Amino acid sequence: MRFFSVRRFRVFMIAWVVAGGFSGVTFALENTWTYRRIDSLYIEIPDSWSPYSKKGSSGFYTGKPPTGGASVGSLVVLAGREKKARYEDVLAPLKRSPGGSIEALFHEEEQVVGGKDAVIFTNEISRREKDEAARPFIRMRSVVWKEAAEDGVLLLAVGGDAALFDEHAAEIDRMIASVRFDEPPRPQPGGKLEGIGERTAFGELLFPPIDLPSIELESGEKKEGPAEEKTPRERPVFASDALLEEEIRKARAALLLRDEGELLLAKGDREGAMDRFRRSLANVPDEELSAFVEASGRRATEEHKAEEGRASLLRREGMELHRDGLLREALAKYRESLAVNDDETAREIVLGLEKLLQERASALVAQGESHEAGGRLEEARAAYAESLSWVDEEFVRRRIAAVERLIRERQEAASPERVLASALWNEGKALEEEGRLYEALVKYRESLKSYEEKELLSRADALETELKERARALVREGGALQRAGKYAEALEKFRESRKFYPRGEIEEHIGKLEEYLKK
After folding, report:
1. 485 and 455 in contact (C-beta within 8 Å)?
2. Within 13 Å, how many C-alpha atoms sit on residue 367's CB side?
């Protein structure tokens, strides 16, 4: 599948015919037509038209053969696909005027072509010389099918020399009307295809022999061909093909630069956009674009003056704050002025203030660390907090949080509840050292009721678990002795378990066993 650019096709059309009126000769063959395949289309093409293929596009032409991209007197039919997701995106560049001395008129209408919905787009391109009316030199008619395939939107275009276009208007209409997407039936020799009218052939182009008279060239050589007849419309729009090529190059460069400028403008890069627009105007003058650039320049100048005024005001405010000793607030104003408009003096002031503030903040942090090491927590917190008034630093905020936590712990340690809890805990530790473990556990629990600490709670829970395990082990031993009939020994085990962790049911069992042994 071949792809071609709408813009490239348009430039090709200009290149083929912009140099002036028809200077080639169309040979009058028999009025026969043949269905030809171009891309995925089948189109009736007059047998007098010749095949054309160049730069990824294929089709047929009449008039002078297009050579070197800048031939004159040609009319071409091409088909291909534009890599777009929507047919509207294909039509958009067709509607753009080249600008400068080149003018364009457009017309579009919706039709069904080849059984599918399409848009017929016709445009006429004229060149306006100084003090002269615009003179058309290109006409094109494009069929853009609405249905987009995975490989793009299908496009059929016929265009070229305006005079040739007018001469072949009926043929162009017939070609477009003949479009079909399925292969047409192969006719019987000498027969007719339904709806075509004249006798048609199918297959390769067949040219009948033509006896052409010799034509004298300037060099004295002879070539075959009919004598060229001069007509009033042979006056060229451009003096030479070289000038034509230069004009096309400039038009192409201007359009590309304008597209780049519009993209940069959409991204917010106004300076870059204006640069592209000015370079575009250097290639092809355009009054509308030139007016836009001038207006944008005036607006940019006005905005720059307004920014300078605002920055100056902010610098004055910063100076007043600096004079009043409000260094941090002054620094904020100077920074704000730099964000509006860069200024070397303001940048130097900002650097100086930043250095001064950092020095003061660092000195206060050092004081805070000294106070903290000496246990003077309140003084440490105050020094750290004052350093933040000069430079806000995260590590200083973390240091303040740690000091405040130590201050809270110190305050809590001095509370009546904390004092009572500490006394009870110390009693428990003394009992534990004497081996009176259960009594120690009781003191620990009383301490925690007065003031609970996570570490002490964990210690009490661990001691309780240990005592319960020892008690359970003695109860199991007592039960085994009892089942063996050794009641007195069992009773001693049960009584011993009470020292570790007394339980009501064990006390009750001890009483029953003592009564039994008395009998």
Report:
1. no
2. 15
Written as six digits, the tokens of 204 are: 């390769």
469 three-class SS: helix
Cα–Cα dist 4/58, whole Å: 10
- Which candidate, 174, 135, 169, places its Cα nearest to that of 35? 174
The answer to whether residues 431 and 443 touch, using CB atoms and an 8 Å cutoff, is yes
pTM here? 0.39
> Residue 213: which residues within 8 A CB-CB, separation 6 or more?
224, 226, 227
At 233 the pLDDT is 40
26 phi/psi in degrees, rounded to 5:
-95, 125
Structure confidence by residue, pLDDT tens digits, 302-312: 887 888 888 88
Can you say whether the dihedral through the CA atoms of 109, 262, 291, 124 is positive or negative?
Answer: negative
Buried b (16+ CB within 10 A) or exposed e, 55-79: eebbbbbbbbebeeebbbbbbbbbb
Residues 6 or more apart whose Cβ sits within 8 Å of residue 340: 307, 310, 311, 314
Least confident of 33-47, 177-191, 488-502: 177-191
Q: Which long-range contacts (CB under 8 A, 24 or more apart) does 342-348 make?
A: 343/311, 343/315, 346/311, 346/315, 346/318
Q: Average pLDDT, whole number, for the chain? A: 77
Confidence of residue 218 (pLDDT cuts 50, 70, 90): very low
Residue with tokens 């400068």: 100
Shortest CA distance to 499 belongs to which of 474, 478, 476? 474
pLDDT at 504 over 70: yes
CB 67 within 8 A of CB 50: no
Q: Read off the amino acid at residue 335.
A: R
160 vs 66: CA distance, rounded Å:
11
Query: In the chain, pLDDT over 70 holds for what percent of residues?
Result: 77
Q: Rounded to the nearest 5 degrees, what angle is found at the Cα of 284, between the Cα atoms of 281 and 286? A: 65
Inter-residue contact 419 to 407 (CB < 8 Å):
no
Q: What is the pLDDT of residue 399?
A: 92
The Cα 407–Cα 401 span in angstroms is 10
Model pLDDT, residue 229: 47
